[in-house]
């Protein structure tokens, strides 16, 4: 199976990208082909006029982590080389999504484990079905985290809670994941697809460049001192206000109408 078959991507004429993990029969476990498929999808989004991304997984589970069956067939230097290739592709995909202005919405269901948690945590808005469960899983098999899990978790839920999940591999339900900040909100399983699509579509209609600036500000603010961050905020605000999207937003507010950011020629 090539990357295009294990990871589907559709980009509509309005700039909404739908990325689907297509190894449902394997719990959407990430093998080398899927990792490369995710990177191809991320690059496709970067090279097209994508305004929002919706990430989903086929089957009962969103993503159970790395493909241990694939890994178990290798050992020694061959395993090291293989895992390096998997993580290089997967991590480059995460970097590419993070560098984009387009916000990412993830819809997760069933088992979310290992690198699956990394994909869910990397999204800007993560919706979980009420049947979803989350397990770090890495140390349970003698591994350490990848897919940004050790970076995202402490920032989302705090270092103490992150270590609890990473060291004990405690399985937590969707409601607890929402309570601690791992996911944005929980919806019933039968509403997950519709709510995720509605959320992604609402973001697609928004001011994409302002979304990108906001994403970068939030990420930078976690490691920046206040003074430097206030300067960064001021520069970003000036740029946003001077853009077509900024002018359209203010005009719409004063005119008591809904802004049309999708037709602004610059700054979207």
TrEMBL record:
Transmembrane segments: none annotated. Signal peptide: none annotated. GO terms for molecular function: catalytic activity. Pfam families: ECH_1 (PF00378). Belongs to the enoyl-CoA hydratase/isomerase family. This is Enoyl-CoA hydratase.
